[in-house]
């Protein structure tokens, strides 16, 4: 069966048809997928039936895997129940312990694990159980956000460094062992250029991590707060984004180097279970 790539028509994202990811990809198939991924930033494969082994094998075609992030909840459950490369994202509680991270809350716009020196270039997310509504995941194209950035904002971030806070998760919970940030200038985390160049496509993208406790180095806290508020309001404009409504068996891969994402909250009395891998990346430059 031939591979078909069907763009969403929004600022990013495409569905790839004609592949069964429970089977190894041929080199030709992988090359087609990789090119579609560079072109569209987020790829959707529907109707997949993959085991954790399959998920890991598919993910490893793109590169070596990172171990899952530390969060308040995965310490309590998820990660311990699975293998270190698989991060369980779930609101399900078993025997008083969450089986995964992020619960049922809204996750604010962010890019994955940008608080480490070499953040994962990609994340792969596979849906095993989904609620009847809510829990949609949105993505925004950071090449386009940079292209459309007003001149004064562009000048304000050109050649600047952002500190990416490590203390909280994307749902705003303190990670296990982290202290609340009292001064964004001294938040723990990693420092990356506000504009990065994608090593494979050569494109330039805004790279801000997440709003909470972010700090634009070289400005006063007040100036940094104002600039970051404007930058995030710009990135969140609907013309840069696409929202994915999950079906069972959907598998997404996205590029953390040129996209941000967020998740809607959902009704906590319903179950949502997702398995995620993260593919190692370089230090942003
Ligand atoms: C992630 C994430 C969103 C979701 O996997 O990095 O933010 O839909 N998940 O659960
Ligand atoms: Mn995420």
Provide structural commentary:
This protein is 21% helix and 28% strand. By secondary structure, the chain is of the alpha+beta class. It has 7 helices and 20 strands. The protein has 2 domains: 162 residues, Double-stranded beta-helix, CATH 3.60.130; 94 residues, no CATH class. A hairpin with a 2-residue loop joins strand 6 and strand 7.
Based on CA atoms alone, the radius of gyration comes out at 18 Å
Share in helix: 10-25%
* End-to-end Cα distance: 39 Å
Query: Do you know the CATH architecture of the largest domain?
Result: 4-Layer Sandwich
**How can the largest sheet be summarized?**
9 strands, mixed
CATH domain fold name of the largest domain: Double-stranded beta-helix
Q: How many distinct helices?
A: 7
- SSE string: EEHEHEHHEEEEEEEHHEEEEEHEEEE
The coarse silhouette is: globular
Structural class by SSE content: alpha+beta
Total domain count: 2
The unique ligands bound to this protein are: N-oxalylglycine, manganese (II) ion
Number of strands: 20
CATH class of the largest domain: Alpha Beta
Low-confidence stretches: 72-77
């Amino acid at each position: 069966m031939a591979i078909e790539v069907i763009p969403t028509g929004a600022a990013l994202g495409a569905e790839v048809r004609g592949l069964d990811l429970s089977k190894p990809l041929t080199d030709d198939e992988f090359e087609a997928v990789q090119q579609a991924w560079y072109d569209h930033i987020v790829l959707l494969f529907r109707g997949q039936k993959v085991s954790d082994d399959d998920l890991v094998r598919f993910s490893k075609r793109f590169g070596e895997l990172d171990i899952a992030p530390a969060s308040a909840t995965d310490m309590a459950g998820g990660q311990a129940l699975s293998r270190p490369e698989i991060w369980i994202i779930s609101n399900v509680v078993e025997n008083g312990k969450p089986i995964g991270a992020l619960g049922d809350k809204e996750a604010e716009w962010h890019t994955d694990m940008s608080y480490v020196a070499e953040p994962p270039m990609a994340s792969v997310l596979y849906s095993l159980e989904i609620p009847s509504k809510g829990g949609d995941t949105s993505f925004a194209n950071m090449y386009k956000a940079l292209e459309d950035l007003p001149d004064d904002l562009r000048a304000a971030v050109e050649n600047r460094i952002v500190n990416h806070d490590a203390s909280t998760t994307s749902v705003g919970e303190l990670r296990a062992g982290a202290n609340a940030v009292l001064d964004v200038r001294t938040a723990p985390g990693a420092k990356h250029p506000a504009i990065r160049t994608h090593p494979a496509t050569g494109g330039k993208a805004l790279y801000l991590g997440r709003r909470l406790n972010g700090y634009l180095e070289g400005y006063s806290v007040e100036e940094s707060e104002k600039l970051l508020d404007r930058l995030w309001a710009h990135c969140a404009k609907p013309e840069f984004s696409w929202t994915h409504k999950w079906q069972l068996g959907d598998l997404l891969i996205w590029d953390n180097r040129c996209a941000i994402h967020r998740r809607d909250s959902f009704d906590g009395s319903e179950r949502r279970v997702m398995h995620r891998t993260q593919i190692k990346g370089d230090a942003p430059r």
